[in-house]
Hints:
Belongs to the Orn/Lys/Arg decarboxylase class-II family. LysA subfamily. By secondary structure, this protein is α/β, with parallel strands linked by helices.
Amino acid sequence: MDHFANRSGSLHAEDVPLTAIAEAVGTPVYVYSVATMKRHAEVMLDAVAGCGSGEPLVAYAVKANPNGAVLRVLQGCGLGADVVSIGEYRRARAAGIAPERIVFSGVGKTAEEMAEALAGGVLQFNAESIEEARMLSAIADAQGKSAPIGFRINPDVEAGTHAKITTGTADNKFGIPAAEALGAYAEAERLPGLKVQGITVHIGSQLVSIAPLEAAFRRLGELIGALRAQGSDIRLADLGGGLGVPHGADQPQPALPEAYGAMVRRVTADWNCRLVFEPGRLIVGNAGVLLTRVVRVKPGASHPWLIVDAGMNDLMRPALYDAWHGIEAVTPRGAKATVNVVGPVCESGDTFAMAREMDAVEAGDLVLFRTAGAYGATMANGYNSRPLTPEVLVDGDRWALVRKRIDLSDCAEVDPDWR
């Protein structure tokens, strides 16, 4: 469910006409709906209520959309944070998320990042190698603190999603293979400054079926039993994220959060662990759109080329993952056309859709890309010396610019003093 709907012939974000935002801010621009984010947070919280022992923690994956205004909305909904860098940690803290509601993931945490997060406080460091645990041990010992830690385990389960967002197979840069878990935990128990308390898994993103997740969780449950038998007091299990979001009626339909929650209750019933969940896309994906304007329509050999002012630098997912986004006219005329939708960047990969049937549009018309609230603005860049895309937050009939359009002239480039 989202709050982008056609009213009187034109698409609105909640009660705000998208035409008004485009006129005031220009295009391309990301637009986020507060009501949609709140609704998705509520659905996820309801789905996992009663799972595990103690209060489950829904730790929003900040990487999906780290805008401070978005984080403050989600903090107000009762969500914690899953962070993968000290920058994300600082954003989460600035948004009011308490340290004990933050898990620190990521394969490349530096010593400096670990030291700052340990001093500021976290619920758990999700370590991805024994080498990382050794570094954290030295830092915690030097600070005279006990660092809460769990290892990310690769259960060698194929997620059934795009290869570039699959993360749980045996040969992967993330985590440690399940076969090496007992040895890693045994060494961590001997290291000073570590409080071994948890375990975590994350097998990929945009999963349509919950079957791979269930297989991974069952493997994790077996490991929890083996680790406890070995002497580790595992009390927290982080089940990651990955549940997919709907992209349109004619696209694969993912399992509902309610079905996911029921599966988790069934699989984890005898774990006696507090559970953590890391949804990102599920919360903000359909809460955002990318608003763009048609530059021109160019004749093509098979289909016309619909050239818009948003490029792959603004929305990288189609170029990176062959991701599908719904594309609609903001003020549709009723006619349809089959077109190739592309941006202005000088790369053949700057392609959003080929042979797509959509609303017929002309130069100057506004178009939007659906499901752009996650991994959109946060992955944007200035390739071709294009400015970073602005972001707008809508709440009812109010809207605000929450990130301005950033031109390269605003960046910290300096001439060397020897010129």
